[in-house]
Write a structure and sequence with these properties.
By secondary structure, the protein is α+β, with helices and mostly antiparallel strands. It contains 15 helices and ten strands.
């Protein structure tokens, strides 16, 4: 069995040992109940000693018996749904690398071992619609559990479960699952308060959720609330992107660096809401991590840009084996940069940063401004970021043409990025006006991002064109340098035409 994944949508029900099965064929929309299938299942659950996975709603197990025997990793997807990733059975004592890479941002170097074993006698009934399409499975489980974490304990219980067919879950399925739940409840089934079989097995050892139950943001509520809500979501996304980088997914380094920049920009833009020292420490570490990821990302961008430029040149203008030389040079640089990324992501320093980010969000060191009314306070801080953008713009248009002007436009881009993320963090308070400001700042960031890519390309081309032994290739690099200069001038003009909106918009207090 190769690696596979699907979205899982299910509802559990409590059942006594003597409770008769509900009349499944009487449920509205169920045209036929298929022949039952019986299985004997054994599942060994894995986690750290401190239940780092369970506290985040993540399940890692190895199950034998049944049609889906193998390693299963279940990650939160959305309300009532999880993404399930499967790997072959392999070694009983060794978690597959593919799955471990997906959870290292949560386990953070702590050992993972068996915490409970569950044996289940299962009878499964496929439920079909009137058109013959399989909608879901009704499962009758008799469970025996043995927890080995902390004080060993054993227990038995019975539960029912309705799980949507994979294609129904992928298409949403909320209405169908709700209908099935209501119909079964009406037939005497009782929706369970159990979050999972593992939670029942662990009982009092089950950990508190790492997700913070925070009050909804409001204009008159504390200013820190919408910012913390945004940071909470971004850190959760950062942990997901971590696994994509470890698994070498396309564009994953770019996405992870973007998450880091969002978090850092919001901490910086709203730093007045919190005590200064914790914010400074987090900003410093986030900047360092983004720099490590940036070395690889810069190689990606530069490689693609130079390759495209070479491909677009007429063949007679490409002198020498420049395509081959470019591939070899960039491959070496990318390997070196990625090695540094992997070392950083496996370091105690990185895991401490993740701990510190979560601790900051869980117990925020707010100031009096953090407790002040959100609408007025956040508007002032976002508008301050807008003022900074206007200042950087004035400096850029007044700078001398050349490296000084290029650097000044890069500062405009960074200011636009900070404004964009600051506006995004308070959309729940300021609504459409914040969205418009975010979009306008994003437009500036995109235009000047292309300008900065051109600056980096020109610097690289200058090195290549003046390197010892470059021979006839110097001519080609010179042509590309001239084209990049023209492109940079064009992006500056585009910014001057389209960047006004971002400099004019304000949030109302």
């Amino acid at each position: 069995m190769a690696t596979s994944s699907n979205v899982e949508a299910e509802q559990k029900f409590d059942a006594e040992a003597s409770t008769p099965l509900p009349a499944l064929d009487a449920i509205d929309g169920i045209g036929r109940v298929g022949e039952p299938a019986s299985y004997s299942l054994e599942a060994i659950y894995f986690d750290t000693r401190h239940l780092a996975l369970a506290s985040r709603g993540i399940t890692l197990r190895r199950r034998t018996g049944g049609p889906d025997a193998g390693w299963h990793l279940k990650l939160p997807h959305s309300a009532g749904k999880r993404t399930e990733i499967q790997e072959p059975l392999g070694n009983a004592d060794t978690v597959p690398v593919e799955l471990m890479d997906r959870v290292l941002a949560y386990t953070r170097g702590h050992a993972v071992g068996a915490i409970a074993t569950l044996t289940t006698e299962r009878t499964s009934y496929p439920l079909y619609g009137n058109d013959g399409h399989r909608l879901a499975d009704f499962v009758d489980d008799h469970v025996r559990a043995k927890a080995v974490l902390g004080e060993p304990r054993e227990q038995e219980w019975r539960e029912w479960e309705v799980e949507l067919a994979p294609d129904e879950a992928d298409d949403g399925g909320d209405t169908l699952l709700s209908t099935l739940t209501q119909q079964l409840s009406g037939a005497g089934a009782k929706p369970s308060e159990r979050t999972s079989k593992l939670a029942t097995a662990l009982g009092d050892s089950w950990p508190a959720s790492k997700r913070t139950d925070r009050e909804d943001p409001s204009g008159n509520g504390p200013a820190a609330i919408p910012v913390l809500r945004y940071l909470d979501e971004e850190v959760a996304d950062l942990l997901l992107q971590d696994s994509h980088v470890r698994l070498a997914r396309a564009d994953s380094v770019h996405q992870m660096r973007s998450q880091i920049r969002r978090i850092r920009a919001v901490l910086h833009g709203f730093r007045a809401l919190f005590e200064p020292d914790p914010v400074k420490d987090l900003e410093k570490e986030l900047k360092s991590l983004a720099k490590t990821l940036g070395r690889y990302r810069d190689v990606e961008v530069l490689h693609e840009r130079l390759k495209s430029s070479l491909d677009e040149l007429p063949g007679k203008l490409v002198l020498g084996q420049l395509h081959k030389e470019l591939e070899e040079r960039m491959a070496l640089r990318a390997d070196t940069a990625m090695s540094a990324v992997r070392n950083r992501l496996n370091s105690p320093r990185y895991f401490k940063l993740l701990d510190d980010l979560e601790a900051f969000i869980d117990a925020p060191p707010t100031t009096s401004k953090g407790d002040a009314a959100a609408k007025e306070t956040t508007a002032k801080l976002v508008n301050k970021a807008g003022k900074r953008l206007r200042k950087r713009h004035d400096e850029a248009v007044g700078a001398a043409v050349g490296p000084q002007r290029d650097k000044a436009f890069h500062e405009v881009r960074k200011a636009a990025k900070k404004l964009r993320f600051a506006a995004a963090a308070v959309e729940g308070i300021h609504g459409k006006r914040a969205v418009k400001l975010e979009d306008a700042a994003h437009r500036v960031q995109t235009i000047l991002g292309d300008h900065q890519d051109s600056v980096m390309a020109r610097a690289e081309l200058l090195k290549l064109g003046t390197a010892p032994g470059v021979s006839n290739g110097a001519f080609t690099y010179g042509v590309l340098h001239a084209l990049e200069s023209t492109a940079a001038d064009a992006t500056q003009q585009e910014y001057l035409r389209k960047g006004k909106k971002a400099r004019k918009l304000r949030l109302k207090k």
